[in-house]
Protein 1
Amino acid sequence: MSQDPPAALRIHADDSVAVALRPLGAGEHLLGVTLREPVERGHKLALTAHAVGDEVRKYGLAIGRATRPIAPGEHVHVHNCATALAGERAYARAPAAAVQAPATAATWQGYLRADGRAATRNEIWILPTVGCVGLTAEEIARAARERHAGRIDGVHAFPHPHGCSQLGDDLAGTRALLAGLADNPNAGGVLLLGLGCESNQLDALLAAVPEAARGKVRVLSSQSAGDELAAAARLIDELAAPIADAARRALPLAALTVGLKCGGSDGFSGLTANPLLGRLTDRLCAAGGRAILTEIPEIFGAEQALLDRAVSPEVFAAGADLINRFKRYYLDQGLPVSENPSPGNLAGGITTLEEKSAGAVQKAGQAPLASVIGYGAQATAPGLALLEAPGNDAVSSTALAAAGATLVLFTTGRGTPLGFPVPTVKVASNPALAEAKPHWIDFDAGCVLTAGTAAADAAFLDRLLAVASGAPTAAERAGQRAIAIWKRGVTL
């Protein structure tokens, strides 16, 4: 049954602040305090007095320290609260008890590949080795889409500006990322399109593609092909022939691999959308499926609880090393590890990186941390995987697809139109965004506050399974498909 949400919410009994669920005016009395000033929706109000240096607590965690005295009823934000994050940490493991998620018999209609993996789409992908042939790849894809319309789910090119003037680990990262995309089950066929003289040579890229996937891959060097457009058309026709007759079949929830992502977060993200994904993650992992969490800098400050769910000391150590390595990446550039949230996050009520992280990690629910994988690597073990990638929306979402995600679940409080190689399900944290941008948003998680978690969870699972079974996302309808590669090294 729908109900009116409260005016403000204290999330955890230990919290020293509450979140405004609507704009609040000075003089309003709620949760035992009288507001001393207006508080915008999604922003925080103090429930207790804070002296300078006192912890400000939300989600039951410290999200920063008071930088000046804060009285009950005051607005808490950047003017009186700041991060307490520093640099690397020595992590000590304190194993957390496993949480058993409810069983589900849910099924979806997907494509079962020869290697036993399941796909949510049956497409051909064109992956340029280098930026020089990116526009050529798009031209090839446009012609092939018309030629094969109705036979397969689509032909898509994914241009990028990299693949040349790169050295060492930087070039290896580009190669690993493209090889991972080539291995994604949603790509029933792949054309690796090269120029010929680039650093990212076709033979080395093909060798990086997992051996089991090489049968669905064709390669073309534009400089050697004569008429490269005609040659590419022949290769795509060859790739389309064996997959044109593929049919969807009923598959269990466990056959899904989902990527977990948030972008343009606001003060509601950690209350509605991210916990919604967390409960789905728990059910998926309990069923034997895979969920992939990334955006490592948006774990800083909330990592201990995640690491404590590691299934072994080795996984704990790998996760701790990844987080510290990422912090060192910042520190080596002379930058603070806490240079986050973004201007949009701040406007939405998020004050510190600790607060942003405490909300962001809720996408992973309470599932045990089963594996830790590097950038460009595949998530092969069932359960929750932690993937090396930054917080940038396009870079991290591309990395999720390269790790094997056949859906990306993307929560947002501010909104974004961009989609990625696999279906990208946009989940609004609040009804205002969902109402304003229905052409961007696939699900309104704000219903959690009115309909309750059980009804919201059921509706979200239905929507998720429909998309997995072929219903287009908002981004797919708009033709929003892109990749971005994490470039860390010098450019020659």
Note: The domain at 8-82 is CATH 2.30.130.110 (Archaeosine Trna-guanine Transglycosylase; Chain: A, domain 4).
Protein 2
Amino acid sequence: MSTSYEAAGVDIAAGERAVELMKARVARSRRPEVVDDASGFAGLFDASAFLKYRRPLLATSTDGVGTKVDLARRLGIYDTIGHDLVGMVIDDLAVCGAEPLFMTDYIACGKVVPERIADIVGGIAEACALAGAALVGGETAEHPGLLGEDEFDVAGAGTGVVEADELLGPDRVRPGDVVLAMASSGIHSNGYSLVRHILRTTDLTLESTPADLARTLGEELLTPTRIYARDCLELTRAGGVRAFAHITGGGLAANLARSLPETVDAVLRRGSWEVPPLFRVLQEAADVPQGEMDKTFNLGVGMAAIVAPEAADRALALLAERGVPAWVLGETTEGTGTATLV
């Protein structure tokens, strides 16, 4: 009896069709520095662009979307998960002040469904364009027998560049600086294991429309991650930025502390913003302690900026012009490198 790769569960033709479907959307993320590789085995970027720098530092980041992909699968919505991936990867680069240059992606799935793969990659490309990064390559791997036909996971890596003497970080932070919050679009891409546990153990379902929400819970939970890279770059160019903190796994205080030196604390004021209703719906449904909420979710703050006092008003005005809700979250004091919600 003869056998084949397709009989083993790998459909090469489907993979080729997925590539054709995504080409036009990927092209929209192109930057002038991208160089075509006729073989398609590598993504090429013209490094002569770095000649304008005195001492360019390359920054790199890699991440995934976590178990949020399970909700996308269950709801059959695949064009937003790419925004989540870009937000997780590219906004980490923005924290050090780096301009994002390019990104690659990796998708593992149990079965290649061309339209689904094209939606995922198309979303990644659209988000890259929003962030100013080029999507220069990627890989789709079919893993029959390891993943179910409807199962998939996504990951990516990004590269950026920053001038060495403009590198942002804890060493620039001083007591008396102002901490600004930039609103999240929702839960973003962290805490979904707890979300899925709440869905399993309470009456909430993806089709529920709790009283405080205008959409179904599923729609709220799949809201794509806000991408801050260009906003952060504009703040940096305006001057006065000491550091950024991307609020991801670990919550607000833990991520803010990563951007503090050992001699400075940050005091973050709960009363400075209203936590979006989605977080309250989840907390109340499962009686989640506040401490668990604090260390699991962003609670409505997706990015924080630590700025010099004289730059705070200008930074808030710039963010307002760019359509990013922002406010004074707290301030820094002398301390031991901790951030506290009070």
Note: The two ends are 71 Å apart (CA to CA).
Protein 3
Amino acid sequence: MTATLVWGVAYAGFGLACVLSGTSLSHFGGDAEGMGWAVVAVGMTAALISAAVVRYGMRPTLRVLLLSACALTGVMAFSLLMDVITLMLGQGVDSPASTANKALAAVGAVLLAATSRSDRSDHLPAVPDGTAVPKPSAAPRSVQLAAWVGTLAFLPYAAMKTYWASGGTFAGVAGEEMLAVSERNGASGIFLALESWGLDPTALLALLGVFLLWGLVRPWGQVFPRWTPFLRGRRVPRSLPLAPALLGAATLAPYGVVGIGYLALVTGGAVTMGRGDFPSEGDALLVAWIGITAFAVYGVALVVAARSYWLRTRPAA
């Protein structure tokens, strides 16, 4: 609770500093004050609620307010995963301040969620070290089916990106043209080097995402962190696989679902979509359907798998 209180004050201070310095927290710049004041409001609200919990203890009303603030910070952290992927590929983000805001908001969402359940965890009976996490188990068949669907949804996307990286032509664009577009858009040397070797970085990240997905539904996913030397022989915290899973689910699921709605409108002729670097709008739409469908289906599968993992690894009461 104290950590949440400190975070709220620090988050509000961050927003105020951005307002006073004229730093925009929008991903695309502009509107320097609006988003900054919103951050101040959310941070101060979270701090006041946390102070009330410290003073009066957890009450039903305070729990609802904490969860509401958690939802708000979760919205502010939206698309953090995209920035993380960009940084992993050695590229700079469009707005460092916006990325910092998303990272702070993600931390706040975790703290607020934990605080809302603090009174319940305090009354759990103590268990010896190493026995809090149940024996590794597989997820139910329905959850594993969702994992299969999420995995298969990425196959067309990975095949398309790998085909381009190997020099093939798809949707009217050759691999050399895609490499030139990436270079023109500021892709890093690492990204361009992998592309020149026929390895698309985003396809490799999709493979890593599938590994995470199956780690959440299979027994080995509850013990694989112990394979690393610095964790061997120690109790593995549940948040180790859950943190990237929740981050991915919170970003990809809404991004993909909203994207499918938009693409459906484009397909139906209700709205138009720019063709970008493709020869026609139809080519751009085809590529968009492949990518957005993969994000949507995988994101939903990640939500299902993360929930199953959470339930299967709950400490025994």
Note: The beta strands are 169-170, 173-174.
Protein 4
Amino acid sequence: MLGTGTIAHRFMTGLRAVPGAEVAAVGSRTAATARRFADTWDIPRAHATYADLAADTGVDVVYVATPHSVHHEAAVLCLKAGRHVLCEKPLAVNAAEASAMIDTARRTDRFLMEAMWTRFAPATAAARGLVADGAIGEVRMVQASIGARMAYDPAGRLFAPELAGGALLDVGVYPVAFASMVLGEFTSLTAQAHKAPTGVDSQVAMTVTGPGGTLGLLGCSIETPIPRRADIIGTRGSIALTDWFCPTALVLHRDGAEPEPMDFPHRANGFEYEVEEVHRCLHADRRQSPLMDWQESLRIARTLDTVRERIGVDYPADQR
């Protein structure tokens, strides 16, 4: 475990539901925070620096749980030290950082995966299966939005440009990745945004075009609590998912038929499925996940770059 914030604690809850998953060490920026996390979760070794964790030869895989402004630095450090890496979403601040991380994984022959937990949820897998089986005909449109009202703090992670703040990278990566999963590579994109006083995006509305004229209507916000629903719409029906960023249910709507609700409860809290995917890939000696491979993560990173270019948001990291 690299990082000891909220997401790290939530990840631990999911990981503990996976047989064979053992957390051997935690690394933080200080000895005190590392020891506190280790004591909370009964972890044997606590490291006072990320470098010490990366150097721990008793660790197979590092989960990077830091804010995304540090993903590139932390992941490259661990990959070069010989550790496999599961890195929280978004993989990096921009496509240049994502590409450098992927290049490092390739050179070091290490596993690297963006922790897009949506991909691995059983309900998402069921939705992909229904689409593949033609249950809703030919897919023509995707709608997906996510948002919450967050207290404005100009120095806080969500609103500070130097920390790559804004709605798009914090939560907007979800609808972009969901549309990419369903539609494939985008052929065009438009975007509009409202900005916070610090200049980062606080709301973004996007439209994307996929192959064959398919469309995606996507949105994200840290201003408003947007209803968390996504729809995959085809020529003969649709699939609706609530809490779709890591869903536990879906409703299949077939033309002329009653809605068909389907439940897929989590064993823990949803993080367990991405842990299982890492295990599957490593046992098969894979360096990429077929459900979230490097090309897909890079494609998403490039899309996020394009959106920021269209709405006029840039970060100090873009100049490095």
Note: The mean pLDDT is 97.
